[in-house]
Amino acid sequence: FHCPHPGCEQSFTRRYNLKTHFLASHIGERNFVCPICDVGFARKYDLIRHGSL
Length: 53
Ligand SMILES: [Zn+2]
Ligand SMILES: [Zn+2]
Hints:
The protein is mainly alpha-helical. It has a single domain, classed as Double Stranded RNA Binding Domain. It contains two helices and two strands, in the order αββα. A hairpin with a 6-residue loop joins β1 and β2. The protein is globular and about 25 Å long. The two termini are 15 Å apart. Bound molecules: zinc ion (2 copies). One zinc ion binds next to α1.
């Protein structure tokens, strides 16, 4: 599971670890959250791009 945060290169073997990392490192930036993956994005553009993959 790769961190979707722009510029963040970290990846994790478990989604739980990614979520923990995301909340710890990028908290306050989850303005746009994917309803399927529960992954947050700082910009609406990134969420749209994620959903179109
Ligand atoms: Zn990250
Ligand atoms: Zn998603």
